[in-house]
Design brief:
The complex is a heterodimer of chains A (about 250) and B (about 575).
Chain A (H helix, E strand, L loop, with lengths): L11 E6 L3 H24 L8 H29 L9 E3 L6 E3 L1 H21 L15 H26 L1 H4 L5 H29 L8 H8 L1 E6 L1 H10 L4 E3 L5
Antiparallel strand pairs in A: 1-4, 1-5, 2-3
Helix pairs in contact in A: 1-2, 4-6
Chain B lengths: L1 H8 L18 H7 L5 E3 L41 H11 L3 H6 L2 H4 L2 E2 L6 E2 L16 H4 L23 H5 L15 H4 L10 H6 L6 H8 L37 H4 L2 E2 L2 E2 L26 H4 L9 H7 L7 H5 L10 E6 L12 E7 L5 E6 L3 E6 L5 E5 L3 E3 L12 E2 L1 E3 L9 E15 L4 E2 L12 H4 L2 H11 L8 E11 L39 H32 L3 H4 L1
Parallel strand pairs in B: 6-14, 12-16
Antiparallel strand pairs in B: 1-7, 2-3, 4-5, 6-9, 7-8, 8-9, 10-14, 11-13, 14-15, 14-16
Classes of the chains: A mainly alpha (about 250), B alpha+beta (about 575).
């Protein structure tokens, strides 16, 4: 299938399923669980009283357990599929030979370009500086944010959460109250951070071509992706059903 | 008059009870004055008729069923008996170890040495903030003594034939004990003409104690139905399930001794030295020895296969069962006194003491809000307890304790904290009183309340003489000047356990505003506590993010109009 070449740099552009079925399942299940956890968590925290404490705690505990299970499985999935590399912001594609390079400078330059774009370029109608590729599904800012989510906010929540939920098993020593308060503190702080993260994250989904463009992509899995000739051939040969059509504009 | 005698005769005299109903028999003089329509009654009549009390048998213990003896057939109990001590001699002729067992029993000695604090306690010494002191007023108070003829602190405890076996073991429900001394003329009238006790019949009726034996005194502590404890009232003779899930005929049908277990006339459940935080564990087959919830229910009583149950079991190490399972005390229609003001005692009308009934309790019966002999009262029903950390050890302000009268005096006090593994959060009734004290020595006082003499407060209404006499009789130094001091006493709440559906819900404590545990410190409680500055930072982050979203959106819309849509969007 011949793909249309872009005029400026001669790259191919196609509609490709870049978010696999599991990745989408992960994303939306995680979204539902995080929403549930935030809603019940704020109820437990005493911000509002929509449901009984008992309902809130039980729901929170179940959702938290499911989310931890989901994350365990997803970590496994990320490493076995190689998808984990997508979340390493410093791992960038070399502009000339297309190989992965670990470069802080190239990352900072590209990060700055994206930050500048969202602060200014987007308002002037400039194109997004990052073109999605199979190797880099996320822009550097996005990758950095998701990495923060995965190695800072997420673990702060689940580690403190596990201590919190198992409080009755370890509170039986002098000074345990101090550790409990540390647990609660970390859990509350990380929960606020998570909610702030989600607000920005949801807003960012509206910055695509159309306000629902990214949402649609996360539902169908299909995005407009720059392909190299090799990638194109690989997809045509090994995963033709992922290659939807050639009529994308990157 | 014969009607009156008959009515009074059927009265059961228990602990200075005050259960006075509107239909109470009145003297002719009283009737005249009552007919003017006011709620004021004259005279001092403390007593009224009580309903017949069935000897309810526990369905739980087999003690009744397993008995091998029918006491009514014993030749020793055929009588005739002329007095209580004669019956006791008959009892002791077979139960020849009972006398020695009672010799160390608080119901008999009224003395208690606290094993932890070493304080000398017991009814014979303590001053409470209800009727104040039994000491010196035995003539009235010893109606609830498990003995005969206790008229003063000088009572021969080795004279075992004076032990009153019947008070605790008779099951006719008609037993009573007259005050061993005469009170003032105004008080004495209430005991006139009581029907003589059929000693033989009463002796033959003995059984293991039923709730009417215990209840006759313990439901009426402080001078009336539920006055003192708040969780022990005549409702417990036959309570609905909502009031007491253990004692109700629709519940477990337990009687007092099913929980207050023991043997050899020693049983569990001391209020001076309480068992807090019992694990309930004991060797296989060993009998229960503690009056604790856990001794039956274990220390993980909630369903450990549900998240809620697991979480509730996790509370047991810090929260006493009673704190959640007795959502309120003084339930079932009988009120408890929560405030007592002795300062107003002694007001007279036409030279006579009087009383006012200003409170109608849940079961429709009026309660006294003023009595010349005692002062003014306030009542409460369905009261939410006060919660405190408590390690079980009660300390007391005794007659020799000096205190600062500018602050409320704690009649009893206790310690406990989050950090103490022996402490639990425990429910209490808090009793507030203004009562006489020695203004010169800053101590409590013994008052001479009861007696057929010129000093007894009940009849003469003179604090100065009653206190001077009370102190002198007991050899306590007295400055000669009295005042009134505010006192608090704390009554652990253990009875009136509600069905589990009525237990306190999570958010009644885990809430920011006005929670049951609002004033307990030393620990972080989810739902109640937070770090205000962490919350502030958190909300700044959230509203900052939202503000960013709004500003950015507006900027995009405005700029889109100026520059047009992004190139991709034009497609």
């Amino acid at each position: 299938m011949p793909l249309r070449k872009r005029k400026d740099d001669g790259k191919l552009c196609a509609h490709v399923v870049i978010y696999t079925r599991y990745e989408r399942f992960w994303h939306w299940t995680q979204a539902a669980l995080i929403f549930t956890l935030a809603f019940t968590g704020l109820n437990i925290h005493g911000v509002y009283h929509v449901m009984s404490m008992e309902t809130a705690v039980v729901t929170h505990d179940i959702a938290a357990t499911l989310l931890i299970l989901l994350w365990i499985f997803t970590t496994f999935w990320n490493f076995t599929t190689g998808n984990w590399k997508q979340f390493l912001p410093f791992l960038q594609v070399h502009p000339e030979d297309g190989r992965f390079v670990t470069g802080l400078k190239i990352f900072i330059n590209r990060l700055w370009a994206v930050v500048r774009y969202y602060a200014w370029g987007i308002l002037k109608g400039e194109p997004h500086p990052h073109k999605k590729t199979l190797q880099r599904k996320q822009n550097p800012l996005q990758a950095l944010a998701y990495l923060t989510f995965m190695i800072v906010i997420g673990p702060a929540l689940w580690i403190s959460g596990i201590f919190y939920i198992l409080y009755d098993l370890w509170n039986d020593f002098a000074g345990s109250q101090m550790w409990f308060q540390a647990t609660v503190f970390v859990h509350t702080a990380a929960a606020f951070a998570m909610i702030a993260f989600v607000i920005i994250h949801v807003y960012m989904t509206t910055t695509g071509k159309t306000p629902l463009h990214y949402i649609k992509g996360m539902i169908t899995g299909v995005e407009e992706v720059e392909l190299s000739e090799i990638e194109k051939e690989y997809l045509e040969t090994h995963a033709p059903d992922l290659l939807k059509d050639e009529n994308a504009s990157c | 008059m014969s009607d009156l005698l008959k009515t009074i005769g059927s009265m059961v005299v228990a602990a200075g009870l005050t259960l006075v109903s509107a239909s109470m028999p009145a003297t002719a003089a009283e009737k005249e004055k009552a007919e003017d329509g006011s709620r004021i009654e004259f005279g001092i009549n403390e007593y009224s008729d009580l309903p017949a009390r069935p000897h309810m048998v526990s369905a739980f213990t087999l003690k009744e069923l397993s008995t091998t003896a029918d006491h009514s057939k014993f030749k020793e109990l055929q009588g005739p008996f002329k007095s209580g001590p004669e019956v006791t001699k008959a009892c002791l002729s077979c139960h020849n170890k009972a006398g020695q067992q009672l010799r160390n029993n608080v119901h008999w000695t009224w003395e208690y040495t606290h094993p932890v604090t070493g304080q000398k306690l017991g009814k014979e010494r303590l001053i409470n903030n209800f009727c104040t002191n039994a000491r010196g007023n035995e003539g009235m108070c010893a109606q609830c003594h498990a003995g005969f003829g206790r008229t003063s602190p000088d009572y021969d405890l080795d004279k075992v034939e004076n032990i009153d076996c019947l008070a605790c073991h008779e099951s006719t429900g008609k037993y009573y004990k007259l005050p061993p001394t005469r009170g003032n003329k105004a008080c004495a009238v209430m005991f006139e003409g009581k029907k003589p006790i059929d000693w033989a019949k009463t002796a033959q009726s003995v059984k293991m104690p039923g709730r009417n034996n215990c209840g006759m005194c313990h439901f009426y502590g402080g001078g009336g139905d539920n006055v003192k404890h708040g969780d022990l009232s005549s409702v417990l003779y036959d309570p609905p399930k909502d009031v007491d899930v253990h004692m109700s005929r629709d519940g477990a049908k337990l009687v007092c001794i099913d929980c207050h277990v023991g043997s050899g006339h020693k049983w569990a459940g001391s209020r001076y030295n309480m068992t807090v935080g019992d694990s309930g564990k004991r060797p296989a087959g060993a009998p229960r020895t503690k009056a604790t919830c856990t001794s039956c229910h274990t220390d993980s009583p909630h369903n450990s296969t549900s998240i809620t149950g697991i979480k509730l079991n996790g509370h047991v190490d810090k929260v006493a069962c009673e704190s959640c399972h007795i959502p309120a005390f003084a339930r079932g229609g009988v009120a408890t006194k929560i405030f007592w003001d002795w300062r107003t005692a002694g007001r007279l009308k036409n030279g006579e003491g009087y009383r006012e009934e200003g409170y109608i309790q849940g079961n429709g019966k009026p309660r006294h809000t003023y009595k010349s002999i005692k002062g003014s009262f306030k009542y409460g029903e369905n009261i939410r307890p006060v919660y405190r950390w408590f390690n079980g050890v009660m300390r007391y302000t005794t007659i020799d304790t000096r205190f600062d009268p500018s602050k409320p005096v704690q009649i009893n006090y206790f310690s406990g904290s989050y950090d103490d593994p022996k402490s639990r959060i425990y429910p209490f009734k808090k009793m507030r009183t203004f009562q006489p004290y020695d203004k010169g020595n800053n101590t409590l006082v013994y008052m001479h309340l009861w007696g057929d003499d010129k000093d007894a407060f009940w009849g003469n209404y003179n604090f100065a003489r009653a206190i001077a006499r009370g102190m002198k009789d007991n050899g306590i130094p007295y400055s000669g000047e009295y005042g009134f001091v505010e006192t608090w006493s704390w009554w652990p709440i253990n009875h009136m356990v509600a069905p589990k559906e009525k237990a306190v819900q999570c958010e009644e404590c885990h809430t920011r505003e006005n929670g049951r545990l609002a004033d307990l410190g030393g620990f972080y409680m989810p739902g109640r506590d937070r770090w205000w500055w962490l919350d502030l930072l958190g909300w700044l982050a959230i509203f900052g993010a939202l503000a960013l979203v709004v500003v950015h959106t507006i900027a995009r819309i405005v700029m889109k109009n100026r520059y047009g849509a992004a190139p991709e969007g034009k497609e």
